[in-house]
Each structure stands twice: as structure tokens, then as C-alpha cells.
Write a structure and sequence with these properties.
- The chain has two domains: 60 residues, 434 Repressor (Amino-terminal Domain) (Orthogonal Bundle); 72 residues, no CATH class.
- 67% of the residues lie in helices and 0% in strands.
- It contains eight helices and no strands.
- The longest helix is centred in the last third of the chain and has 23 residues.
- The chain is elongated, with a radius of gyration of 18 Å.
- About 5% of the residues have low confidence.
Length: 151
């Protein structure tokens, strides 16, 4: 039974010109399982939905069929990117109060945000790179750790 999720998942892949084999590999699942998701044969767990949202740069509401247009694409104007830019701006404003470790963590995070913005500007319809996303999450965790030590 085709669901909104199944149709949206399949459409996102086709719109971006990605083969099912490549998408399955990138999403770290078998091609057969991706086919089942796209055809509505099986329903995914939350973990897969989260990965698919990051991969295709869309919101969970969109991929689940709750919105017909996606207002939260990963682009330089998206709310996600704007939140990162605002966070970085606040960190830069507070930089003189930070330890060397915290300043290094801020610098690494800022560089990752800039790389993400550049990637989104160069290829706005290309799926997010999992390595970059994972790296940015790790840098953010290190930043929070350094900031907690700083306080």
C-alpha cells in the first residue's frame, strides 16, 4: 500500500537523479529494504526517517507527507542554516570570554558551518553528505563540552 511517506521518499530520490542502489548504500540499508520503503511494503523506524531527512535535506513533516511543500530544505536561506549562523554569531560575540580550548572548538565549528553553507549554495538539490553531517555533530558536541568547561 503506497503511503505519503513511500511516495515522497521515491519522489525525492527520482527528483535528484539518484539510483536506488546509491541511495540505499548512502543510507546504509539494503536496496531491497529501500525498495520496500518506497513501495509502501514496509514502514521505517524513526532512525531511518531521520537519516532520510538529512540525506535529502528535507523536514520530517515533508517526508512523512504532512506538508505538500518543504519549507525546510538545507540551503543557505533555510531555518536550519539561519539557526547555525545565529549560534556562530553569538559565539563570536562572546569569544573574548572563552578559554583557548573553547576558542579552538568555536573555530572548528564555524569552519564546518561555512563548509555546509558553501555546499548548500553550490548544490542546493544535492543530498546532504553524511560524513560532513556527522563531523559537524561531533564538532558541535566538542564545542558544548569546551563551553561547559569554560563556565
Amino acid at each position: 500500500m503506497k503511503t505519503d511517506f513511500a511516495e515522497t521518499l521515491s519522489s525525492l530520490r527520482h527528483e535528484r537523479g539518484i539510483s536506488q542502489k546509491k541511495a540505499a548504500k548512502d543510507l546504509q540499508i539494503s536496496q531491497a529494504l529501500l525498495s520496500h520503503y518506497e513501495n509502501g511494503v514496509r514502514e521505517p523506524k524513526f532512525e531511518f526517517i531521520h537519516k532520510a531527512c538529512l540525506y535529502y535535506g528535507v523536514s520530517a513533516d515533508y517526508i512523512l507527507g504532512r506538508l505538500k511543500t518543504d519549507a525546510i530544505t538545507v540551503s543557505c536561506g533555510s531555518p536550519y542554516m539561519m539557526d547555525m549562523v545565529n549560534d556562530v554569531s553569538q559565539l563570536v560575540d562572546d569569544a573574548e570570554k572563552l578559554s583557548d580550548e573553547a576558542v579552538a572548538a568555536v573555530s572548528a565549528y564555524v569552519k564546518s558551518v561555512i563548509a555546509g553553507v558553501e555546499h548548500a549554495m553550490e548544490e542546493p538539490n544535492h543530498p546532504a553528505n553524511f560524513e560532513e553531517t556527522a563531523n559537524q555533530q561531533q564538532l558541535l558536541a566538542e564545542l558544548y563540552k569546551a563551553l561547559r568547561k569554560n563556565n
